[in-house]
Amino acid sequence: MELLGMTTIFLLICISCLLLIATWRNISQNGKQPPGPFALPIAGNILQLNPKNLPESFRKLSEKYGPVFTVHLGPQKIVVLYGYDVVKEALIDQADDFSGRGSLPFVKRILKSTGILTSNGEIWKQLRRFALTTLRDFGMGKRSIEERIQEEAHFLVERIRNTHEKPFNPGRFLTHAVSNIICSIVFGDRFDYEDKKFLTLINMLEENNKYQGAIQTQLYNFFPTLMDFLPGPHKNIFKNIDEIDKFILEIIAKHQETWDPGCPRDFIDAFLNKMHQEEGNGHSVFTIESLTRSTVDLFLAGTGTTSTTLRHALLILHKYPKIQEKVQKEIDHVIGRDRSPCMADRSQMPYTDAVIHEVQRFIDFLPLNAPHAVIKDTKFRNYFIPKDTMIFPLLTPLLHDSREFPNPEKFDPGHFLNENGTFKKSDFFMPFSAGKRICAGEGLARMELFIFLTSILQNFTLKPVVDHKDIDIAPLITSAANNMPRPYEVSFVPR
Known about the structure:
The chain is an alpha+beta fold. The chain has helices spanning 2-30, 54-65, 84-93, 105-111, 121-137, 143-161, 171-186, 196-211, 215-219, 224-227, 233-258, 267-277, 288-319, 321-334, 350-363, 396-399, 442-459, and strands at residues 68-73, 76-81, 100-101, 372-373, 378-380, 383-385, 390-393, 460-464, 476-477, 483-484, 490-494. The chain has a five-stranded mixed sheet with strand order 1-2-7-4-3, sandwiched between helices. Strands 5-6 form a two-stranded antiparallel ribbon.
């Protein structure tokens, strides 16, 4: 037993020495790489990082190592960019170099790196180009999608009205409404709010949001092979995603049965047309697998982010009745009570626009941003970053920069208003990221946030069930991936 222990220690020492030699050779041959804390073999920097609050860990490391530094999540090396100047320099000034998509083990296990969000190279270019063109053809950015959102906002308002002022958590209602927009574009139709399959799907998404904050889920990015063998909430997430995949595959199968090449109804039909056009091309990226992954990507991205932002918005607005009242006065002045809000109204509603921007800034929904990667050996400032290195261009230090947003921890629509009350843009405002990998659904999300929120406040006043001062609007850091609103209930009082 003692001999076995000595052998194990000797092997670990040998492995460590080999890793150090390889690192030294890499540095000496290619130049200086970004600094960072010493990483243990296999475990990486787990001793210096809090898996449940990576943004705070990175803030502390930036104070010691500067705006560009290296960390290891397990064996995975990551270069962190902390601050507006370095993020802008990477994503905008050197956009091509940083246009790759990094993929953490947890995300790779879920999205499988073959769809729009997580693919790379020519596959990504073709899928993203096709998705943007097709979504535009089916209304994204045009009046037809605006009308769909207005129609869905009407259904949402009537559903809220039927609660008869009883306090409830509006999260599920908002998720249903937002999800129906992307469903109408991708699947060709919305779902009734009582549809059992749709309800099951939304339940799984809500469960996944809850499970993402579990320590087992965060440790998966450090030790994926080990965590695959251990029980925990991460296994529930994988199970739910598999069920969502089955749901999508069923819809694709039904589309294949009724497919008419001359009359595409939605994104799936358009993709099937593209597959048909490329039959015989053995290298085509348009396959059933990439259709499934791309559809899942669009469904998940088009449902979760905007609905969660709206949940945050209603929580914040019912804490601050004066802000809510000011938005409602602007709605009454520009839109009135009788017609549906439209995007043309936004330019005449600077205060409402500022409130929506401030909600996105304040909640910092995606603090780490989606991981990037350099597509070639890259010189960045005075450092050398090897090809395929994963990059974390953090959003938190941009959205909470005190130079640009005084008192960034305070919710203040004035952050986006000039002294004369007109709307003020900010280069630091990047909730959808920037550069080549900017969110493909940014335009859709902006439409949904404006029309859904103004429709709700046009018809209802938010009444808290507790004292205003007891409402906590600080986002819950449930995982390294996103910030969620605290659970709450609110009454919707007809105006």
